[in-house]
C-alpha cells in the first residue's frame, strides 16, 4: 500500500486524482472575515545606551 495503490490517499496524490480516499476541500459559504487593519504605530526611539565608565586603578 504505497504510491501505486489507487485506493489510498497516498496513491491518489501520486496519481493526481480524487476519490473516496482523497476528498476535495469544499469552501464553506458565508461571510468572509473582515480584513485586519494595522494600527498606526508611533516610531518610539529606544533610550540611548548607557555608557559604562572605566574604572581607574591607582598604581602605587
Give the percentage of residues in beta strands: under 5%
**If helices are DSSP runs of H or I spanning 4 or more residues, what is the number of helices?**
1
Question: What share of the residues lie within helices?
Answer: 10-25%
In oligomeric terms, what are we looking at?
single chain
Largest sheet: none
Biased composition (Basic residues): 48-60
Biased composition (Low complexity): 31-47
Family: Belongs to the bacterial ribosomal protein bTHX family.
Region (Disordered): 1-60
Could you walk me through the main structural features you see in this protein, from its secondary elements to its overall organization?
With 60 residues, the chain is largely without helices or strands. The protein has a domain of 26 residues. The chain has 1 helix and no strands. The protein is elongated and about 90 Å long.
Amino acid at each position: 500500500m504505497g504510491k501505486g495503490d489507487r485506493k489510498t490517499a497516498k496513491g491518489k496524490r501520486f496519481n493526481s486524482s480524487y476519490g473516496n480516499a482523497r476528498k476535495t476541500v469544499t469552501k464553506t459559504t458565508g461571510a468572509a472575515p473582515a480584513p485586519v487593519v494595522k494600527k498606526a504605530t508611533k516610531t518610539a526611539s529606544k533610550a540611548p545606551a548607557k555608557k559604562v565608565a572605566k574604572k581607574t586603578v591607582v598604581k602605587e
